[in-house]
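Q: Give me a backbone?
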Amino acid sequence: MEPAPLPSSPRSSGSDPAEEEKFPELVSARPSYTVLLSEEDLRPKAGVSIPMMRRAPEFIYSPEPLEPILIPKETIIEDSLRREPERVAHQENLLNKLVYDSINASPFNPSAAELPDGTLPPYYVQQAESDTTLVFESRFECGNLRRALQIYEFEYDLILSPDYNTKGNTQWYYFSISNTRANRLYRFNIINMMKPDSLYNYGMRPLMYSTLEAVRQRKGWARCGQEVCYYQNPIKRRSASGCFYTLTFAVVLPHDNDVVYFAHCYPYTYTDLSAYLNHIAADPAKRNRVRRSVICQTIAGNNIDLLTITTFNNDKESLKKRKGVVLMSRVHPGETNASWLMKGLIDFLLGPALDAKVLRDNFIIKVVPMLNPDGVINGSYRCGLAGVDLNRCWVDPNKKLNPSIFHTKAMIKRFTEEREVVLCCDIHGHSRKKNVFMYGCPSRIRLRERVFPRLLEKSADIFSFSDCVFGLQKAKEATARIVLFKELGILNSYTLEASFCGSDFGKYADCHFNTEHYQEIARHYCDALLDFCNPDQTVVKAVLSELEQLIPREEEEESDSASADSDFSNDDKGKKPKKKKSGKKKAKESTTERRKKAS
């Protein structure tokens, strides 16, 4: 893959100073200083002293056909728990051999200097031709694996790195292995997970990428694993009460001496984003529909990109009348599916479709595709370098510690002062629920906040209205969704959630989502936006009337359940959040009804 060309301007890609003078409102987020987008500036900056390979791994993304969700064995948890005491009882059989450490020096390979090609020497060096020990690696962009301990010849305990300046948030994993043996059953146990429950117990499987399969068969990332289980282990946590959780899975590898990658979800790095935006800047058809600028730089010195999408013409009055839309993504770095969904949105908005042109002609759309590049680069799950959940500091963001939130909030505030912002959406991934759904804020007009999600369900087969939750909760008062609703008066302020796993209804029922599915929902999102903002509000009124019949006033409930919202993080407490039974029962009944209709 050839590197994408650099942007044409150090200030904003695809624009010129004369045009910016003509339409200052379109570049209002430009920083007061000039950021030179040289090749060095575009290279990801980790912001820490730990070595990282200069080049991120490159993959082909050729989605597999529908991959079924695994039906868990009834006794899988009992079988997994049984292995723990067996280890204790027969410790003489354990190897307990440290074969990978992403930070400390290697006793197998004293030379830690970077190689000429920008890679790092492996931690473990094969001791003999018959040595079957796997060689692990995670010191690349977005990678996360702290240590690997060989327990038996083909079984390994793995430890993930917590987010920087935190003692938790271990969920995202992404690493490679080499020195593989074909047709051998390998077992991997990630033993320091934090969340009390996981979709892995409901059929989700890990992702695997075989380098040899990619070369020989053009096969990309695919679901893998058997005996997948997520359970609480006996290892006590030092910083909090309770124990860690283990994700265990077994896999048969197809080739000898392959390089195989494993990940929690389809990787999408800061390098991927930069290359994608550079490609847009080099596309003559697309670059005239978008302006790229830099809101600010992060703690590590990475750019926070801002895209302004609209039809650029000389009619200033037309520009002033256009309404605003704000789209944001990847505030939580481990939620990589959010970036694939955002890519689908940008592709559609910049594409040749008539609906896309109508949107560009009538709206000015501000897009912040990656709010937390520092966390993305360093393989974090939820936080940035300051150890703060950036979706918890929107009330009063710190300019130095949370620059991306501080400047993004300021940009949106200016935007609301210039024009009516009809909708704002923060895109996330969800680790404990299936389907694609939304969280919204209750409107002064009864049920009005439910209209857009209902329109989206009518447009998209994979969107679940019954899983949507509408309400305000004190525990989430510092999230983007609620702050933009309360402080800036954006009435249609949503969080769009896409499951890491898949769907439990409709045409993709009991199948995993892939990158195409995430981008598919983005296209339907734009269709729903057109219906929602159509001057002829016939469809909107019909949906509102339908909702009034479906949801009688006495049954309406603000059930903004913390247990299901990606805005909620209970990792550091190690407790399962309480659930509202009535809301859960209602959602189940609605899903059942839809399944009957689909069949």
Remarks:
- Confidence is low (pLDDT under 50) at residues 1-25, 27-37, 558-567, 569-599.
